[in-house]
């Protein structure tokens, strides 16, 4: 398959089926652009109504072509495109690019046409349909109809782009050119009837010209393939940056458990991206900002940033935004400050604080070079942001040259913030190896990504193989709380002691047996959120539990219209941090969720997720990382003299829960423990409530 993709991206000959002699029409663009941008191979226009298109011979049909094309661009409509695909496949063509729309995106008739397309292709590969094509800037090969190719010149660089939207390809191509950002290849996959996102990530991971891979993602159709391709890119040292659309449609669906409300499709993408080392762009603008920074190959080891400015306001703007994102902008240490002061030739520069303000002295290239070199050499800083003010507009080449001269002296990241509206200055700096941005937020996003890439540890390791648990006796449907916790216990998750009761007398006896204070709950597979209907009472004793049972039965019947017949009397876990531990499954896979628990779980939404590996449950390292990722982690780690929690026992419970999810597989629809009490170090954990739904 890689050979077919190589021929698709680097063809020696291209047939254009349905080519028009009118370069102003969409069907006339591909031939016009191939010629305009210097394609060195053979071009075979196919149109039975035209003898020549420009200087090229036009052929009446595919059978008449003088040779076998590596690629065929099919410009026919959806009702006829499959005929051209069939004929190209018969000639031995490697791949066809089908531009027509009107396939699965239009309904049943479109699905029928897409099936025809697949059948017609046989073993030949297809890009599209509904694609705008591809652009290989590395080799001057443009197999596309995007109007962005009207531009005469595009910077060539190390960023490869794969987009599931055709229009976005043209947008990125033109925006990158305007900003001086060099691209290598751009591919629009669109409907992905055959070749898809993961195929091109895999290919670009091997492409010598590509250093960073940028993705515009609508959906991931094959999660396992996507995972493997991204992990391959990570192993090759090529960062992958993704902008995923559809967040507004990713609201959590109605679900039995809190986990269903907390997870949602977009959170699943977050988990997938994190685990395979993909940097997620939060805005469309960041889909160029971040790759432009990463393409320099510089990585940010720490979070201390020096800001060198010739305009105080802009320096403060960048410093403030960096601070909000967790970066530090410390003042120079004594040695650095002394070295900076030694450069000063007048009274204008303020070189012993951060931002380091050279103001009017910034017009002196010697001072600028000196300050940059001192800051890059300083042990106080991990990166340098240079503010380009209005005073630099008169001599942008001098400014860019001074900065560029300093780059070989350090491998620390160096970026620029262009304060006035001067896109030509930003493009010049970017082309000279200094990624330049027009917004302070873009500087922060770039540095954050450079830091993330330096510290990424992709790849999910499975837990050690566990002995299979017997599950043949499990019923289908919603389990009641007692049954759910019995299932958790089988896999090694400790649960609070409890007794099933039906009468006040039985409740009193159970409370005496358990000792101390107890919790009373209704036991029902139909009512999951028991506290919402008055079905939970805490702090009861043997003397009070019987009367509370009678009152609870009446309250639940009034609120839920269901008369409870059975109840749980449960030992009351007196202390500990309440967490929620659940699972969620969608098209991307099965995820384990951990977060702040109890009745406020959906209010605070302090959660983290991990997708299960292809086989088995989570590793202990992943389980620990989940706990440490929570904002509430300090509560487990001895916050303000609080006893440290039994994190080791929590990790064991997370792994056991994940192994349960892995073994049950598709049969497990929902599962959740809320709350799981994490007690003081050495005292373990206790699952105090549970939900399980089985198919």
Automatic annotation (TrEMBL):
Q: Which Pfam families match?
A: ATP-grasp_5 (PF13549), CoA_binding_2 (PF13380), Succ_CoA_lig (PF13607)
Q: Which GO terms describe its molecular function?
A: ATP binding; metal ion binding
Q: Where is the ATP-grasp domain?
A: 485-689
> Which superkingdom heads the taxonomic lineage of this protein's source?
Bacteria
> Keyword Nucleotide-binding on this protein?
yes
Note whether ATP-binding occurs among the keywords.
yes
What are the entry keywords? Answer: ATP-binding, Nucleotide-binding
Protein name per the record: Acyl-CoA synthetase (NDP forming)
Q: Which organism is it from?
A: Pseudorhodoferax soli
Show the taxonomic lineage. Bacteria, Pseudomonadati, Pseudomonadota, Betaproteobacteria, Burkholderiales
């Amino acid at each position: 398959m890689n050979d077919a993709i190589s021929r698709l991206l680097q063809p020696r000959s291209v047939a254009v089926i349905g080519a028009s002699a009118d370069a102003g029409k969409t069907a006339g663009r591909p031939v016009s652009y191939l010629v305009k941008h210097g394609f060195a191979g053979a071009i075979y226009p196919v149109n039975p109504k035209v003898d020549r298109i420009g200087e090229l011979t036009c052929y009446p049909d595919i059978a008449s072509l003088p040779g076998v094309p590596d690629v065929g661009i099919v410009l026919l409509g959806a009702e006829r495109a499959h005929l051209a695909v069939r004929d190209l496949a018969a000639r031995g063509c490697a791949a066809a690019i089908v531009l027509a729309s009107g396939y699965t995106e239009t309904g049943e008739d479109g699905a029928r046409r897409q099936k025809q397309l697949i059948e017609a292709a046989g073993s030949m590969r297809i890009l599209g349909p509904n694609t705008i094509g591809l652009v290989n800037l590395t080799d001057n090969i443009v197999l596309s109809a995007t109007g962005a190719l009207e531009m005469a010149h595009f910077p060539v660089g190390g960023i490869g782009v794969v987009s599931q939207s055709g229009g976005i390809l043209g947008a990125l191509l033109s925006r990158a050119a305007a900003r001086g950002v060099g691209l290598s290849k751009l591919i629009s996959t669109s409907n992905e009837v055959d070749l898809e996102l993961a195929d091109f990530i895999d290919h670009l991971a091997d492409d010598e010209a590509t250093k960073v891979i940028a993705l515009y993602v609508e959906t991931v159709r094959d999660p396992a393939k996507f995972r493997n391709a991204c992990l391959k890119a990570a192993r090759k040292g090529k960062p992958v940056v993704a902008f995923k659309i559809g967040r507004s449609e990713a609201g959590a669906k109605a679900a039995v458990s809190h986990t269903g409300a907390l997870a949602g499709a977009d959170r699943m993408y977050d988990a997938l991206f994190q685990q395979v080392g993909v940097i997620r762009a939060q805005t469309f603008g960041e889909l160029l900002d971040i790759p432009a920074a990463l393409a320099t190959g510089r990585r940010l080891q720490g979070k201390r940033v020096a800001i060198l400015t010739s305009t105080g306001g802009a320096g403060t703007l960048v410093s403030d935004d960096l601070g909000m994102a967790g970066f530090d902008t410390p003042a120079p240490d004594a040695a650095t400050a002394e070295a900076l002061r030694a450069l000063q030739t007048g009274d204008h520069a303020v070189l012993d604080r951060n931002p380091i303000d050279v103001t009017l002295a910034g017009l002196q290239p010697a001072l600028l070079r000196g300050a940059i070199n001192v800051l890059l050499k300083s042990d106080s800083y991990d990166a340098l942001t240079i503010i380009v003010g209005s005073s630099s507009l008169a001599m942008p080449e001098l400014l860019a040259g001074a900065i560029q001269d300093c780059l070989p002296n350090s491998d620390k990241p160096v970026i620029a913030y262009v304060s006035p509206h001067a896109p030509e200055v930003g493009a010049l700096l970017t082309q000279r190896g200094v990624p330049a941005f027009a917004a302070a937020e873009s500087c922060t996003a770039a540095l954050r990504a450079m830091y993330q890439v330096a510290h990424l540890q992709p790849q999910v390791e499975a837990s050690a193989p566990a002995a299979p648990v017997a599950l043949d006796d499990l019923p289908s449907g919603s389990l009641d709380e007692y049954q759910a916790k019995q299932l958790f216990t089988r896999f090694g998750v400790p649960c609070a002691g409890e007794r099933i009761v039906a009468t006040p007398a039985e409740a009193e006896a159970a409370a005496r047996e358990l000792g101390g204070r107890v919790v009373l709950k209704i036991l029902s597979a139909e009512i999951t959120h028991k506290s919402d209907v008055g079905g939970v009472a805490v702090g009861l004793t043997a003397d009070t539990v019987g009367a509370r049972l009678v009152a609870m039965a009446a309250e639940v019947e009034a609120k839920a219209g269901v008369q409870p017949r059975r109840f749980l009397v449960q030992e009351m876990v007196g202390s500990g941090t309440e967490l929620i531990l659940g699972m969620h499954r969608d098209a991307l896979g099965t995820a384990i969720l951990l977060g702040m628990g109890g009745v406020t779980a959906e209010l605070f939404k302090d959660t983290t997720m991990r997708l299960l590996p292809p086989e088995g449950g989570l590793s202990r390292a992943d389980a620990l990382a989940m706990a440490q990722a929570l904002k509430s982690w300090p509560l487990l780690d001895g916050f303000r003299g609080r006893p440290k929690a039994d994190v080791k026992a929590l990790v064991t419970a997370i792994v056991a829960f994940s192994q349960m999810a892995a073994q049950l597989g598709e049969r497990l629809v929902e599962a959740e423990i809320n709350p799981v009490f994490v007690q003081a170090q050495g005292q373990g954990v206790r699952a105090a409530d549970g939900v399980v739904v089985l198919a």
